[in-house]
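job 3f2a | input accepted
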Amino acid sequence: MPGMPSAPEQSGGNRPAQQWGERWALQWRDLSTRSADWDDACRSGGNPFHCRAYLTAHCGRGERPVGIVESESGHPIIGGVLSRNPDAFRSYSFTAPHGATESGLMIAEWLRREDCPRFRLGSFMQGLEGQEVPPGVAIAQRVEFEHDLGRPEEQWWADLHSQHRRKLRRSAKQGFILKKIPDSHASVMARLALSWSRRRGLNRSWIDLLRAWRANRKLLLPLSREGLGVLYGLYRRDGALLSAAYMLETHATAFYMLGASTEAGYRAGASFELFWQLCRHYREGGLARLNLGGVPKAADHKSHPEHGVYRFKRGFGIEPSPRMTWIADGG
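job 3f2a | predicted structure (331 res):
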């Protein structure tokens, strides 16, 4: 699943954070209780990482989901998780206020004034890229693979790497079927994770399966319950599940969150067909883009443990988009 990037680099920025006018005053928004207007604004903007269900799913002990909004308009700027202290805050994405070219500096200064010296300002969708990093803040970089669904399918095919074309030609002869998996999301993903482990020679027991189910249930239940997360499966004609992908969906975009394949699915290259059919499915549904998820920026090097994931996603002909996280430890 997509997580906050690690391995931060120390910033060389040294310009003081700019002040902003009364126009950009910010305030907290408590999302501990259901907040339909907040979620509607986040979904209509195509950003699932602001939504209350996503934030709730990532709350640990002593943490609560919160938002940061423009005081005057109530427009969502950040959805994040705040510790009980509160002296720490982390986000997964944010939307820059209209006309605020230094929004990162603005938010970092505001958090420090709010007694949050430790924070992680991240962006899976947009926001921090290209902004000057304030002093005392480290950075971590990743890339995301955003598929433009507005292009003709012929262009999709032309952009594929040769291995992907071979895999898709072969799977097309098999007649694989894409279907929504309506329930038992945590159980399905736990079983697939166990299959993934065994394929790599890891000896996992039923206790490991139970732990995986509990972790998936905590993560997926709030998302599925709110209709933000949907699980899709790719099946053989005989009904056997080959591969699955858990997707976050808004009105404008879909985002791949996590997935896995069975041993049979791995041999058949089902993950290639799964993403290809998801692209078609979402285009027919009127969505503008499908984000296949991301990896650390360093994964473009062959020595990186996630280089295989990088190659798989890059093979769909998608130019990776840079994403940046700012990390302040309060020092």
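job 3f2a | The first strand starts at residue 9 and ends at 10.
job 3f2a | closed
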